[in-house]
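Question (not urgent): is this output format expected?
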Amino acid sequence: MSIHQRDPTFIAFTSEQAKHYANTRPSYPAELFQYVFDHHATKGGSFQKLLDVGCGPGKATRDMLPVFEEVIGIDAGPEMIETARGLGGTTKSGKEVRYEVSRAEEIDKVAGLQEGTVDMITGATCAVDKTADPTQPRCDIITERMKEFEGDYQGSHVLRGNEIVHNQYRDLELPWEIDTPVVAFPREKYLRKEWDYDNDFEDRDDFLGGSRNITIKQIEGLIDTTSSMIRWREAHPDLVGTDEDYSIKMMKKLREAAGMAPNENGTLRVGAPTTLLLFQKA
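Got this back:
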């Protein structure tokens, strides 16, 4: 059965929340973009026009500007789009990137997005669960604590979409599996690629894009931008900033796992597994 459940959180972002999101969330690995572009090129794809769906404040959109002649980013959140417009950027041809408020289901209403006019459509989602680098002392227990970030307060605050992302899209219904199959995207033109799960680096010695040092406060800042954490705090305004604040409790557990002192803003070396789903139109 197909699932149609919209996440209302990012759509309702204020200007301040959208700017905080843009400043807090990291970019995706350059190696990931290159893999996508190389695959597109081998399939005969053109690099004229890109559409980035659910672009938020345009973090991934801006990273792809140098490759395409024209780029359009859409998002259902008005303040996300305003933030993206404020950050701007120019494409390979020197054109200004264009951002429009729109749901993915309504892109045919956006000027310049008529059927057959777009060469590549992208959609990027970043889950905040991280993995401790194997060189990080006590890496196993640290990774275990990080994977608990969306565990204790699931209930109604974690939506089906959150679960699909955190399960690396293994539960995502694909075009040929839904009630009315989409024949334009056949199974034989689909590719799924995974990197770095269970610290399996294949022929590399690090995570895709490398691991990085991040402080406890930075991790807390990332957790605070997740939709489920935002919904939890909206449901428990009296607990925000107290010892019962879920984010504060999780940072306490993470410090204990890493052997840090209470309230220490220590540094951890972490990376992130990556999942890529590539679809080609028939």
